[in-house]
Amino acid sequence: MPSRRFADGEVVMGRWPGSVLYYEVQVTGYNDVSHLYTVKYKDGTELALKESDIRTQSSFKHRKSQSSSSSPSRRSSSRSRSRSPGRPAKGRRRSSSQSRESKDEKKKTVQETNLALLVLICSFIVCENNTRRYNGEPDSTERNDTSCIILEQKLKPDMEIERVLEQYNLRPRKEEKKKEEMYSEKKVFETIKTIEKPSPKTEELEFGGRIGTFMLMFFLPATVFYLLLICKQDDPSLLNFPPPLPALESLWEPRVFGIFLLWFFLQALFYLLPIGKVVEGLPLSNGRKLHYRINGFYAFILTAATIGTLLYFEFELHYLYDHFMQFAVSAAAFSLVLSIYLYIRSLKAPEEELAPGGNSGYFVYDFFTGHELNPRIGSFDLKYFCELRPGLIGWVVINLAMLLAEMKIHNLSVPSLSMILVNSFQLLYVVDALWNEEAVLTTMDITHDGFGFMLAFGDLVWVPFVYSLQAFYLVGHPTAISWPVAAAITVLNGIGYYIFRRANSQKNNFRRNPADPKLAYLKFIPTATGKGLLVTGWWGFVRHPNYLGDIIMALAWSLPCGFNHILPYFYVIYFICLLVHREARDEHHCKQKYGLAWERYCQRVPYRIFPYIY
Fold this sequence. Notes:
By secondary structure, the chain is α+β, with helices and mostly antiparallel strands. It has three domains: 10-56, SH3 type barrels (Roll), CATH 2.30.30; 200-480, no CATH class; 482-613, no CATH class. Helix content is 57%, strand content 7%. It has helices at residues 57-82, 89-131, 147-155, 158-168, 175-182, 185-196, 209-231, 254-272, 296-312, 319-322, 324-346, 363-369, 382-409, 417-435, 444-447, 453-466, 469-476, 483-512, 545-558, 570-594, 596-604, and strands spanning 11-15, 22-31, 36-41, 46-49, 54-55, 277-280, 291-294, 376-377, 380-381, 524-526, 532-534. The strands form four sheets. A five-stranded antiparallel beta sheet has the order 4-3-2-1-5. Strands 6-7 form a two-stranded antiparallel ribbon. Strand 10 and strand 11 (532-534) form a beta hairpin. The longest helix is centred in the first third of the chain and has 43 residues, at 89-131. It comes from Oreotrochilus melanogaster.
């Protein structure tokens, strides 16, 4: 193995990627596997450089002194050789004047070239910010300090280039040729891609690593089945453990599994319909952008029409309630088979198509988190499809089935007020997600996490069967509430939804068009990536205002169930834990991505989710 040359903390000269310029950097780390040094520039930018791109400061100083000591004699001899004895002094003065004019012209050319480069980079940044959005991650920066300033600092404008070239004697002989190489559009884009290129291997394991993910593969299904069994008891106390276990043969019914498959492939058919616009996702590690058809809301309308037709022909939708546990088992079995298929096919996927968060080399961890980032069958994106279609729309259908079951079991002509509130609140949430379907393309589920057991089970089992827990609870444990209480709960849900939607809209609008005059009041901190971190508006209130809105809505969904048992509030507790975990992931990724700018942002916005609390 090659020995390490530079030590941590050593100040050296590092070459800026895509150029011939060297800048003073500090070594902060070394990877024994990739043999790359992690260095930190003076502006806070951290990059991984090869040893061949790093030099000691003494080598530059030696070259400079050597050059300065020999240059005068060469210049003197050159002048003596070129000077004609018969040429008058006036001619020599004119030649000197022409030489100065020639130098001024060259300097002007360098400045104009650098200005053109800056304009090109600014255009690139605007295009990137218009397409890149990240759900839950604070965005933007001070309106007066544009993204161009960031690139101006990163690529070092004309005066800085001149200073470095003069100081370290790095000016090439054929300057025009080198400038064309440095400032070509190809080099610019290669530089930016080098900065954002993800690591090929997952080094930091989440969820407790291999042991934690192995346990979660058993704990998550057990939690779902435990909640559903407890919810059907006369006394649905979480302390009643273990609940009465049904016979194993009663948990599986081929007809139920067939209905689940029919539902899954019906949603797949709706997904493939040539309706709705086609948009590009965020750039992958190889620079390629995948295309996605945005038709989730149309799929919801078609599903509603299908369910309405079944009810018209007197199909008993409360069949879902009677066989709820069997449907959960069928969904869990299907998600397991799907996860096995996804992992097997990922073994043949190219390296650049693997998930940055699921490429650890450990079977259990990669199987759980997902090894392949965007598994597709032709143009059919399996992860994107499962993210919003079968589970999320299925959640609404299950809620409707619980409403009909409540009316049948309790002989009601109309549903209870509690059931109406739960159905209405959660219907609004699902419709909002489908209407703003394009926003999911910037979430960590799509951009970072692979498609494995975690997302497959979460999308197909956890979302439809745990998120509908309040409606399932109300069927067996009806709770009467007054109209004033219902009005107060509705206001609470409205506040949560307003915060959730306004925060996401503010962030998404800024990412699409940071120069929008309507957003001129927003201020943000510039970062080395060309993005910005909002410090005013909702994102200046707390770091994750959309999470705050989520938690308020989750509380409003549980309040119609009363306070006799804590079971309906399991979703609130789970949601808080989930969002705190996501917030911790966001903090970690943002700190790595934005460096010193993130530290400045955290000082400006100290509260994470709950103002004045957390």
